[in-house]
Amino acid sequence: MWKLLLLCMLGVSNALGPAEFTLSPSGQMKVKIPADGFSRVAIHYNVNQELPGVTGSRFGHDLVTANGGFFEWQSTTQAKEGDKIHYWLWGEKNGQGETQTDLSGIIVSDHTTTQQPTPKPTSPQPIVTNKPVGTASPTQSGSGAVTSNSNSQTAGLSSGVTGSQNGSSGGSSGGGSGFMVGGSSYHGPSKSNTVNCQSYPCLIFEDDFNTLDFSTWEHEITAGGGGNWEFQYYTNNRSNSYVKDGTLFIKPTLTSDHYGEKFLTSGSLELWGGSSADMCTSNMFWGCKRDGSVDHPINPIQSARLRSTRGFTMKYGKVEVEAKIPTGDWIWPAIWMLPVWNAYGQWPASGEIDIMESRGNINYHDDKGVSQGHDSVGSTLHFGPGYPFDPYEKAHAEKHLTTGTFSDSFHKFAVEWDESMIRFTIDGEELLKTVPPQGGFWELGEFDKNQPGMTNPWRGASKMAPFDQEFYLIMNVAVGGIGYFPDTWSNTPSAKPWSDKSEFTTRDFYRAKNQWYPTWNADNNDGEDAALKVNYVKVWKMKP
């Protein structure tokens, strides 16, 4: 989704960890973590498999009692001396959550004198927020190929899936395509790391949602609001994400349906979790704990955001999602991609690929009178050396239906990219194609001209940088927030009930529930008119 990097930074404590791993005489792994003032600590880990950032892990445990200055735990995980444990830690100290990521340690014998592994330095995490989609003009400025179809625009793109035997695992190499598909159980085509492609395009991943496969899809759990002070919090339950009749539903509901109305203004929403399956995934913007008051209620909407980090990431290739977008005022569905590694730095330096974004509003128009509701969708690339330098308008296009809406039926939203271009399509029709010039996205963005003296984060990389690294897929339904529903745009019959300049956006939004909630049609069809419906996700390797 559209993101703006704020000047606020979230520091990561170096006091948390590291962990020490030993093998007991009985063959069980023992974990020892310094308490150092923490009241509880959670560890997420893989054995001999890298674990970037706070992505989903194979194993995890919550440690709530320290003895002698350490949290200690004996795992039943199958491991042996010399195995490498990749892990990240979360801890709570003085009521605040702290995270340490990208750590690793070696399992040694209980009888061996060990040295504690040195944690990999964790850079402060920039807080990001979404930016409203602007309407791209038919003629783009700057170098690079930018073409336009009758209701579309073009700008440049690239293609791949995390490195395996089928391609490079490159982060910035730009050459070759790679695919990583994993998971222990799956009902559909093989997700093994070896894909035996005899011809191309070669389908290497498919989920048709006969079941909700948790070995592929990880739920994000946070109330941070995506950096835009959105009005939902993301959770993992079958009220907000479920499969039925071969379709994935991502459906927003009222928080009060679960906790009651009083909870919003007097309760405390705690998402810290007690195991790896329900652990808060981001504490940015107080994402793991929110206290409600009359003027600042707890996020009044429950929803879901799923990411493919457990199942696949991709660099070069094609991903297609057949989906039907929601209907309902201020609902914000998105199908998009973020980089696994942030190989070129924090957003937007490492890029973002927005396959589809839309608004569920029924009668919603921008300040030029163009409809921007559920009859309109947009595709975008984000890139730049850092906030606020993100010339997304050079790689953005919108599709507006003249009859019907994108909520009426399923549509195929796809992105295809390789070493020379990135292309978005809707139902097979090209919407946007971005072909960067020889100077890459730095030249396309005209940064030398518009921001002289700035450092090019992609110097020495391929011309497709930052889109020459592995990305993962995200599907979510947000609601409201700041930026994506501009104050100057008009909604009928009820105007936007909050101002982006107000400090009481959530309060004002929820007080107008009698205006917007009826448009969600919650009393009919189990409220599924307000859901993003996904029929399938498919990924192809396009060439050897």
Automatic annotation (TrEMBL):
CBM39 domain: residues covered: 14-112
Range of residues in the leader sequence: 1-15
One Pfam family this sequence matches: CBM39
Residues covered by the GH16 domain: 193-544
GO molecular function (one): carbohydrate binding
Alphabetical keyword list: Immunity, Innate immunity, Signal
Keyword match Signal: yes
Keyword Zinc-finger annotated: no
Region called Disordered, residue ranges: 111-176
Biased composition (Polar residues): 136-157
UniProt record, GO biological process: carbohydrate metabolic process; innate immune response
Biased composition (Low complexity): 158-167
InterPro entries referenced in this protein's UniProt entry, alphabetically: Beta-glucanase-like, BGBP_N, BGBP_N_sf, ConA-like_dom_sf, Glycosyl_Hydrlase_16
Family: Belongs to the insect beta-1,3-glucan binding protein family. Belongs to the glycosyl hydrolase 16 family.
Protein name (Swiss-Prot/TrEMBL): Uncharacterized protein
Organism annotation: Mytilus galloprovincialis
